[in-house]
Amino acid sequence: MGCFCAAPEEFYCEVLLLDESKLTLTTQQQGIKKSTKGSVVLGYVFRHLNLVEIDYFGLRYCDRSHQTYWLDPAKTLAEHKELINTGPPYTLYFGVKFYAEDPCKLKEEITRYQFFLQVKQDVLQGRMPCPINIAAQLGAYAIQSELGDYDPYKHTAGYVSEYRFVPDQKEELEDAIERIHKTLMGQVPAEAELNYLGVAKSLEMYGVDLHPVYGENKSEYFLGLTPVGVVVYKNKKQVGKYFWPRITKVHFKEMQFELRVLGKDCNETSFFFEARNKTTCKHLWKCCVEHHTFFRMPENESNSLSRKFSKFGSIGYKHRYSGRTALQMSRELSVQLPRPDQNVERSRSKTYPKRNAQTQQTGKLYLNTSVYFWPGKQEKPSRNFNFHFLFAQRGALISTGGNAVPNPKRAPAWTVQEILDLIAVWGNKSVLSKLRYRRRNAKAFEKKIYRLHSAA
């Protein structure tokens, strides 16, 4: 007699990739069912992305309470109860699971590109904070990868503002990114991305997998799993760091998590933390086991130590990392890497409306093709338009009352953007024929332009 409670085998899932595109996996197209193992699903994604260095990556999903988990390659989809309870349809998120200690040493360009997308996302979403000078460097490398060499005719004022690099992005940062972008001539996308990763890997929060916990007196802490060990944060400050070789035991029971560390005096010390619930505590334990095995285990010891961690983890619970370790991947000889004639297809980043050329606080005039943008006002040029704004000294406020700019004869040379804006209004011949000197007599040129406009 059949079971009437049996769940249907059909499966429909969307995998959100790091370039924000989606990969759809269904029973009809790929033959994926709820009885399919996670390794099969991962295989489809890796083949779609043409990845060979696959052990750095994984698929995440969220339960109804927004707790995230990694898809276990050894389990069937039906065994991921938290995932099954969210659908159908189901959503998986592709991303970096283990951050390489030095991503610049990854063997293939396609692997480094996926790391670049992940780290860029981490910076944008605030998971990897950085000072403004570092943010400007990273933004410039990202722009170089996206747009190539700076071209004043293509990259007009405000072009950087069409892209997002950090939370709450300011115009000051965009100006700094533009200045640095101009110095990166000749860097191809692969080189710009390599330089991006070279800067990002030095950030304090690079590759840190944070888990919220409570310490004594219910004070809030975060445990960060990194390529080198476990970092403890309190009030956003690092208060402890324990390297993987010195961590001798990881244990959890109910909501209590224990980290046992070997000190310099060869004495062991246990640190106890409390998770929000039993599920999150078990998840923290599993992630800790996997990070320790992946990053710090010699090739011949990885399986034995994984079993050791399972034994000491908790009575009734066993977990073993089944993939290759970082050391095994670096010594992998079965596939010659990098593969010859690899062509990396890069996706365009999401763009946003361009920021106006100046800020409202300065009261300056905004120029954009044939329409002039004042703060709070928008109109086309008229015959009585005052041209003194074109020759204002840098940093001076512009008066709209028709007052002359002080000392216009020593006005600085026009910027490329000012020239392009004039061309958009008056045409190439009328403007370009007058651009003969680096420094111009403001009043004389104003009369010529005004005459041209009046005759039109």
Question: Any overview of this molecule?
Answer:
With 456 residues, the chain is of the alpha+beta class. It has 4 domains: 12-96, Ubiquitin-like (UB roll), CATH 3.10.20; 103-200, Acyl-CoA Binding Protein (Up-down Bundle), CATH 1.20.80; 209-330, Roll (PH-domain like); 360-455, no CATH class. It contains 13 helices and 15 strands. It has helices at 27-30, 38-49, 81-84, 109-124, 132-147, 171-181, 189-200, 278-296, 302-313, 326-330, 416-426, 428-432, 442-455, and strands spanning 12-16, 22-26, 57-62, 68-70, 90-96, 209-214, 220-225, 229-234, 237-243, 247-253, 256-262, 268-274, 366-368, 371-374, 377-379. Strand 11 and strand 12 form a beta hairpin. Helix 4 (109-124) crosses helix 7, helix 5 (132-147) crosses helix 6 and helix 5 packs antiparallel against helix 7. The longest helix has 19 residues, at 278-296.
Q: How do the helices and strands line up, and which of them pair or pack?
A:
Layout: E1 12-16, E2 22-26, H1 27-30, H2 38-49, E3 57-62, E4 68-70, H3 81-84, E5 90-96, H4 109-124, H5 132-147, H6 171-181, H7 189-200, E6 209-214, E7 220-225, E8 229-234, E9 237-243, E10 247-253, E11 256-262, E12 268-274, H8 278-296, H9 302-313, H10 326-330, E13 366-368, E14 371-374, E15 377-379, H11 416-426, H12 428-432, H13 442-455
Parallel strand pairs: 1-5
Antiparallel strand pairs: 1-2, 3-4, 3-5, 6-7, 7-8, 8-9, 10-11, 11-12, 13-14, 14-15
Helix pairs in contact: 4-7, 5-6, 5-7, 8-9
